[in-house]
Structure formats: C-alpha cells, structure tokens
TrEMBL record:
PANTHER family: GLYCINE BETAINE/L-PROLINE TRANSPORT SYSTEM PERMEASE PROTEIN PROW, OSMOPROTECTANT IMPORT PERMEASE PROTEIN OSMW. GO terms for cellular component: plasma membrane. This is ABC transporter permease subunit. The keyword Membrane applies. It is a multi-pass membrane protein. Coiled coil: none annotated. Residues 19-198 form the ABC transmembrane type-1 domain. It is found in: Cell membrane; Membrane. It comes from Paenibacillus lutrae. It holds the Pfam family BPD_transp_1. GO terms for biological process: glycine betaine transport; transmembrane transport.
C-alpha cells in the first residue's frame, strides 16, 4: 500500500482528470437514458402490449455482455468517447424504463380520477400528478443505472475511451499494483458515493410525498 500512496501523491492531478472523464461519460449516458427512458416508461405504462415489447427489448440490452456490446458499437461509432457514452446510455435504459413504468402503475387510480374530475388533460395529469408521484421510483432507477454505468465505464479503455479504467488496465499490463489500485479504488469510491447521494435524495423524495 505504501507504493500506492506514493503513486497517488505523485500523480493525483492526472487521477483527478481521469476521474472527471469518468464522471462525464457516466453523466452523459445517464442523462441520455433519462431523456429516452422516461418517455418509454410512460408509453409502457399507457399501453400494456407495447409495454411488454419495450421492457423486453430493454432487458435484452441489459443482459448483453458489456464488452461485447461496446465492441459492436465500436463498429458503428468507432473508437473513443462516443462509443462509451452510447454504451452507457443503453445499459442505463432498463432501470429507468422499468422504474418509470412501475412508478406510474403504482399511482393510486383515485388520485388520477380526481385529476380528471377537476378538468385536467391527460398531459397535465401526467406532468402535474402522475410523474411527480413516480419520482421516488424513477430516482431508484437512476441510482441503479448510475452504479452500473460507473462499473461498465471502467472497461472504456479497451475501445479507446478514457476514465479510471486507464489506470486499471495500465496496472494490469505493466504488472503495477499501485496503478491498478489507483484506478480501482477511486472507481469503487465513486460508485459508493453516487449510491449514497442518490439514496439520500430518494429518501428525501419519499419523505416529501
């Protein structure tokens, strides 16, 4: 561990840059998944037949081996940042779609009926009543997706991406445990911190309901 701390002290600026790259890749993937996943979750909740198709398709992507998926994406998008972000987007879709779907289906029908009774349009009912009540479920989906994405992003260097995975694979290739730990430990801490912060936000949402 002494070598690890020495390496950390000498290269902390570079490690901060890699951590920033890691966070940017994950954040963009999650943001794209939210923009696409929430509407798909709404469609799934509105139409059960279409919903089964959407959920099954997203589930197929979720169970696809991460490295295999990134290699396939590399054929289309080439090496680098874009391929990693698209891969993280695809891996983040399933938790967000499913939790949006579950959240909307758990809304008390009496509340929806009351909204219709006061003259709300379907869009107003969705935006002002149903989605706000579903936020804790959606937050759970984001929480799960973020932790998964942080882990998947560590293999980004294999397809030309950046992030903390560079230190991990450099450490493996050079038989340098200090470099390996310098990538793996911050990645693990980042996942734990993300899970804690999103879990805290989720509890706040539950308390405000």
């Amino acid at each position: 561990m002494q070598l690890f701390f020495e390496y950390l002290g000498e290269n902390w600026v570079d490690l901060l840059g890699l951590t920033y790259d890691h966070i940017v890749m994950v954040a963009l993937g999650i943001l794209m998944a939210l923009v696409v996943g929430v509407p798909l979750g709404v469609l799934a909740a509105r139409n059960r037949r279409l919903g089964s198709v959407i959920l099954t398709s997203a589930n197929v992507v979720q169970v696809f081996p991460s490295l295999a998926l990134l290699v396939l994406l590399m054929i289309v998008f080439g090496l680098g940042f874009t391929t990693v972000v698209v891969g993280l987007f695809l891996y983040s879709l399933m938790p967000i779609i499913r939790n949006t779907y579950v959240g909307l289906t758990q809304v008390n029908p009496a509340i929806s009926e009351a909204g219709r009774g006061v003259g709300m349009s379907p869009l107003q009912l969705l935006l002002k009543v149903q989605l706000p009540l579903s936020l804790p479920f959606i937050a759970t989906g984001v929480r799960v997706a973020a932790v998964i994405a942080i882990g998947v992003a560590t293999i980004a260097p294999l397809i030309g991406g950046g992030g903390l995975g560079r230190e991990i694979y450099s450490g493996i290739n050079m038989d340098n445990p200090a470099r390996l730990y310098a990538g793996a430990i911050p990645a693990a801490l980042l996942a734990l911190l993300t899970d804690f912060l999103l879990g805290w936000a989720q509890k706040r949402m539950n308390l405000s309901r």
